[in-house]
Amino acid sequence: MENISSAIQTLTESANTLFILMGAIMVLAMHAGFAFLEVGTVRHRNQVNALVKIMSDFGFSALAYFFIGYWVAYDTTFFSSAETLSANNGYELVKFFFLMTFAAAIPAIISGGVAERAKFTPMLIAAAAIVAFVYPFFEGLIWNGNFGFQDWLDASFGAPFHDFAGSVVVHAVGGWIALAAVMILGVRKGRYRGGKLIAFAPSNIPFLALGAWILTIGWFGFNVMSAQTLDGISGLVAVNTLMAMVGGIVASLIVGKNDPGFLHNGPLAGLVAVCAGSDLMHPIGALVTGGVAGALFVWLFTLTQNRLKIDDVLGVWPLHGVCGVWGGLAAGIFGLEALGGLGGVSFMSQLIGTMTGVVVAFVGGWIVYTAVDKAAGIRMTEEEEYNGADLAIHKIASTSED
């Protein structure tokens, strides 16, 4: 009997390790989606820079999170022997891998907002600082119960803040940090003339669409594998993810009047919004959540570009920042039993938790990017911007005529 119990335990640990490893690989693949979404959206002379940024940011984010960020969030380090680290089939190591791919999404989100005029090395340093300190501070507050924040919400409003897969912890935080960076950088040269918006057309719609599809597919790992163990897997999460994606597609197609840029970002808006409550909502609630997010993205992207004159190249603040906020609130609405959800949520906890994430992200982002700007400058010269980041920074264009 003892041998049977031991074998079952080993099998369970192995299965859990494989499960979360597959999730980590799927989220890792999403970074290719971030890359191609940006490559397809920016002008031709900035395509190489988009690719290099996503890869470089990932590498530096991994180092920052391994040595500092994971310790800040979970009070865990990796300065033990390999024998200790490989206990339970190395589950804790793979869990770090999974959560690190989430952390690395923050600079990938920011990259799309600051494209075409940001210096390379200073922004890389800023990204590492964000992943080492700002993001893990809020991550630990929510997902590890640091500083008693979740206990206080539970005691005060009957439930802690619920964010199953990161609508607020990952997406809203990334989007609001990006807003701070975009505001400090300022608008691209020639973007507004005589107070009017000058259209900078996407360089490659097929690449943009490819990026959106890669992100969409990987999102099912992002959400479903957030259970982190095989016994926590839920078909409800998968179908809610699907329905929110569909809601985003339909709403962005209608509100965006068939615009391909809006259409391919619409499902991403829906997916951002459903992360928080994907384990609680009824599929119809997820559909509504995604539909609202898709419409919200189109409206806000147009508003920021035309009237507010915030030059957010990929619209990462509307997409991740605002739709992430909506997702945190939507979990407190459609997660209620009265609206078909599983319950166990409080709207006040969702509101306070979401607003806390916004403040931490925007203030933290403003401090980091202001400090780096004062120390090294974060914006390219006018000549470098005119020539494009590909030639100015990397000395090569994305294609050759030879």
Secondary structure blueprint with pairings:
Elements: H1 2-41, H2 47-74, H3 82-85, H4 87-113, H5 121-143, H6 149-157, H7 167-185, E1 192-193, E2 196-197, H8 205-224, H9 235-255, H10 260-274, H11 283-306, H12 316-334, H13 347-376, H14 382-387, H15 389-394
Antiparallel strand pairs: 1-2
Please, could you describe this protein's structure?
The structure is a single chain. By secondary structure, the chain is mainly alpha-helical. It is built from 15 helices and 2 strands. It has helices spanning about 1-40, 45-75, 80-85, 85-115, 120-145, 150-155, 165-185, 205-225, 235-255, 260-275, 285-305, 315-335, 345-375, 380-385, 390-395; strands at about 190-195, 195. A hairpin with a 2-residue loop joins strand 1 (about 190-195) and strand 2 (about 195). The termini are far apart.
Short overview:
With 402 residues, the chain is an all-alpha fold.
Summary keywords:
402 residues; mainly alpha; Ammonium transporter fold; two-stranded antiparallel sheet; 72% helix; globular; transport; Ammonium transporter; transmembrane helix; ammonia transport; ammonium channel activity
